[in-house]
Amino acid sequence: MRESLAGTMRPLLEQDTVDWTDEIFMEQEEKRSIRTRRWNFMRRLQPTYYGFGHTLNNLANDPDERVNVADDPEYASVVKELFARADQQRRTYSDPKWGLWIGRHRKSNST
Question: Which among 74, 38, 32 has a CA at the least distance from the CA of 57?
Answer without folding.
Answer: 38
